[in-house]
Amino acid sequence: MRFTINDKPVEAEFDPRTSLLDLLRDHLGLTGSKKGCNQGACGACTVLVDGERINSCLALAVQYQGRAITTVEGLGQTGSLHPLQQAFVEHDGFQCGYCTPGQLCSAIGMAGEAARGVPSVVTADLGDETVTLSHDELRERMSGNLCRCGAYNGIIDAITETFAADGSQKGDAGARKAA
């Protein structure tokens, strides 16, 4: 089966019952995404598929043939961190770090959703084409990613610093969307 993982073509042979998470970790050696609950409840396994966040522990790898998959290993570039990764460092957005890969991928996917105007439970105006990433919006949208250490304030501060209300990244002058 063929995939594009972190902008690289990948061909793999595996049991069709293999989850995307197990393909990434056990077959391809991409161990950044974590197996926390293996039930889709903690978000530690979050990856991006075509820019949208998914829980890779709940997804069969065969479902994502031919799609663009981005793991935490694919966020930064050689020698430099993604702006959100750098903000996590600056704002103490992690303690043990176990949830961090899922938090990062989820936040990037979430910013893309907000930029496209996808509402959440707390979105004030469902008719808006863009969503302002307020404190309440961020907490609601990131609620599927658990941090057992309780680093939520640093996580929210890092996301707030990195993404503008329109989903653009800091340092990009709005030229590139978040996901």
Task: Characterize the structure shown.
- The protein is an alpha+beta fold and 179 residues long.
- Helices cover 28% and strands 11% of the residues.
- A five-stranded mixed beta sheet has the order 2-1-5-3-4, with helices on one face.
- The radius of gyration is 16 Å and the shape is globular.
For this entry, give a set of tags.
single chain, 179 residues, alpha+beta, Ubiquitin-like (UB roll), DNA polymerase, domain 1, 2 domains, five-stranded mixed beta sheet, 5 helices, 5 strands, disordered C terminus, Beta-grasp_dom_sf, oxidoreductase
Number of helices: 5
Q: Provide the gyration radius in Å.
A: 16 Å
Q: Looking at this structure, what is the CATH superfamily of the largest domain?
A: [2Fe-2S]-binding domain
Question: What is the level 1 CATH name of the largest domain?
Answer: Mainly Alpha
Q: Would you give the CATH topology of the largest domain?
A: DNA polymerase, domain 1
Oligomeric composition of the shown chains: single chain
- Structural class estimated from helices and strands: alpha+beta
What order do the strands of the largest sheet run in, or round the barrel if closed? 2-1-5-3-4
Q: How many discrete domains?
A: 2
Could you spell the SSE succession in H and E letters?
EEHEEEHHHH
Report the sheet-strand fraction.
5-15%
The main β sheet shows up as: 5 strands, mixed
- The parts where pLDDT drops under 50 for at least 5 residues are 171-179
* Helix percent band: 25-40%
Average per-residue pLDDT, rounded, comes to 90
Distance between the termini: 25 Å
The total count of strands amounts to 5
Q: What is the second-level CATH architecture of the largest domain?
A: Orthogonal Bundle
Morphology: globular
